Amino acid sequence: MLPVKRFIDFVEQNRLFKPADKVLAAVSGGMDSVLMAHLLKAASYNFAIAHCNFMLRGADADADQHFTKQMAINLGVQFHTINFDTAQYAREHKVSIQMAARDLRYQWFEQLRLQHGFDAVALAHHQNDTIETILLNLTRGTGIAGLHGILPVNGNLVRPLLFLSRDEIQTIVEAEGLNYVEDASNASTKYARNKLRHKVIPVLKDLNPNLEATFENNLRTFRELEMLLDNQVNLLANELLVSHGDNTSISIEKINHLSPKRLLLFKLLQRFNFTEGTVDDLLTALHKHSGRRFESPTHNLVVDRQDIIITGRNDMEPDDIIFNETDHERKWGNYRINILHDDSPIIVRDNPLAVSIDAYKLIYPLKIRRWQQGDTFYPLGMKTRQKLSDFLIQQKVPLHVKKTVPLLINGNGDIMWIGGYRLNDKYKVSASTKKVTIFELFKI
Fold this sequence. Notes:
This protein has 14 helices and 22 strands. The protein is an alpha+beta fold. Strands 3-2-1-4-6-5 form a 6-stranded mixed sheet, with helices on both faces. Strands 7-8-11-10-9 form a 5-stranded antiparallel sheet. A 5-stranded antiparallel sheet has the order 12-16-19-20-21, with no helix packed on it. The longest helix has 30 residues, at 211-240.
């Protein structure tokens, strides 16, 4: 007998979908998805069937497609199908066949959902799939989030068979005499998941015949622990993450008081896409000299004197720009630079974002660039050369800002102006100056 009541109870308890919702059921034709389709029908839910032909198994794949279409006709529900050139997609996107198939089917399911107004996409994962996922995650090192396994609800994706084990599904299908197709690739140990299914999990079941029930109990604990950790991290984020415009800082002193430090810091930095490996290196750097930098795909992190500074990568280190005597305006990073030629020795005062330079000392083309190791200049009023890094430290310029300070470079390589801070004494307006060029910065 079909476990219709257990099915409906699981759907309602986990709020997968409502009785009046439209559900798109992903059906491969295999035992699991066939049972899901029959349960949806027996429970009187409003659903349609979607089937993907990945064109990887020739006539067998076409036969699965035909079987699934006929099943939809017999159940009296709408049928959607599509053929994918999965191998070509894998080559073009440089991913595995399994990843290509995953990407293609989920993209198509979402298109169908939006086009036809489905409220949910139902997938036929069961308890053993969750066990396999957890073991894979532990093997690959996905952290605590990998321990919650497959969730009943993930956005618009729902999994209404997670209350059943593979053995239970097989018993039900055989008892009900339900026809299904078997994908021969499921028996192959070529893929990691199949290796776990056929070689590892049988050994675990010998050790614990109630493996699925044990994992299900553990999963509830893992999910609740993850919720507890996320709540704690959100509280810490409100306390420790300090926003400064586009930048975020965390006090090193407060990091040192975290316990457990590594886990909590990783969870705080995970929102900026930093990895656990980066956090290990960062914790080592905190006790050494400042200036260490770390990168994630989206952010840069700098260990400053008292804080770590996190900045979006698009906001840092703009490229060099060149301009000639005929240019009047250029853009560099978050600045616009205006250039004005004046036939008088005018000196700009009381505006750190503007400077007058003796026009006859300019060697075009000029350049705007960022700080580089070894940069030196003669600060205005001084006759001795100073390292730019020392000057910026004296000016208390934070390390994460140092790379965004515009430097005006003469054609001979001299730093003429540290934008917003100091002119090079060699390029100041003097009594002999006849003509000046004024450079003015505007924050964009």
